[in-house]
Amino acid sequence: MASQLDPPNTPFAPSGSQTSLDTSPLGRNPTDTSGVSLTVNYLPHKFSNTLLSPGPRKRKGKNVNPNIPKRGGGVEAFRSGEARMPGEGDDDYDGVSGDFFGAQRGHRKLRWNKFKWCLFAANSVLTIYSIIGLIMCLLAWFNIWTHADVIRVGNRTELVISTLAASLAIFVSTIGWAGILLNNRTFLAIYTFLLWIVFIFLLIPGYLTYKRRTFNLEGKINAEWSRELGTTGRLRIQNQLGCCGYFSPFVEATVSQTCYARSVLPGCKAPYLKYERSILSTWYTTIFALVPVHIAIIIAGLLCSNHVTYRFGKGMMPKAYRLSLNSMAVIMDNYAKQVSSVCQP
């Protein structure tokens, strides 16, 4: 009986032009692929050892049986043939179960990869210049700077937007620190998106100050003094710059103890115009100098936010590859056809 059998063929390589899906011993239509997992297109040896071998899986290390294969994930996941699906508690697991800086209680301290260090450096730069910017704005609001009241009167819009930009940058950097220290990719995705919003708020005061400084600053100051400042605004600028009136005490002046008809103080146009040219030039130069730095931070966030650990994806089997009843039926059809083609008398 044994001599009448043909030599066994290579597994999963049916002979002839007829494939293993031509007939279905289970009575189902083999061409109907609706609801069938894509796993049926792969040979069983393509699966990781985690799926093929029963029993617990742990990384190799001290006090671990060397015969037990390790679970996937970590730096080794990038090697050829390695498993890609780590489990909870595995090395480089993407979660918040550990302490800050990646350390877990009772385990060795984990190391940061180069992507995480890049994000750390980029977010440090963002935090530093956003805090410095907010401090500068607050010093202007609290009238600490010399002639800061002139900025509060004549450049109030630019000062408000700059304060909002610095505050938003500090908030975004806080989200970045949460994502970096906790290895949370969701936080880092929000962080990367909000960096664009900060970039817009950074450009607005730079554009406004550049346009005001470059295009007819003298005409804008003339219109501002006569139409927008009012008596209170003129008085505050007169007190700060030590002047009286616009051209002289007889032209659009606000009367005070130092500014009256026979005052010897000069007009405010020349000192106000000189101060505006200086402060506006410094303002937009500083902002535009931060633009390439901020773009570099955005690029770092885009390239590195999904790689704070070496874990691939979310550590879950994609839905299209999960086994179902229809998928098992197709797999059983394949095995039945192979067995019948090999073991037929």
SSE class: mainly alpha
- The unreliable regions are 10-28, 43-48, 91-98
- Estimated helix fraction: 40-55%
Total helical elements = 9
Outline: rod-shaped
**H-E order:** HHHHHHHHH
As a whole number of angstroms, the C-alpha radius of gyration is 36 Å
Mean pLDDT: 78
Biggest sheet overview: none
Q: State the end-to-end CA separation.
A: 8 Å
User: How many β-strand runs?
Assistant: 0
Fraction of residues in β-strands: under 5%
Structural account:
The chain has 345 residues and is an all-alpha fold. It contains nine helices and no strands. It has helices at residues 49-52, 114-141, 148-154, 156-182, 185-214, 217-228, 230-241, 269-304, 325-343. Helix 4 runs antiparallel to helix 5 (185-214). The protein is rod-shaped. Mean pLDDT is 78; it is low at 10-28, 43-48 and 91-98.
Question: Care to give the gist of this entry?
Answer:
By secondary structure, the chain is an all-alpha fold.
Question: What features would you highlight for this structure?
Answer:
single chain, 345 residues, mainly alpha
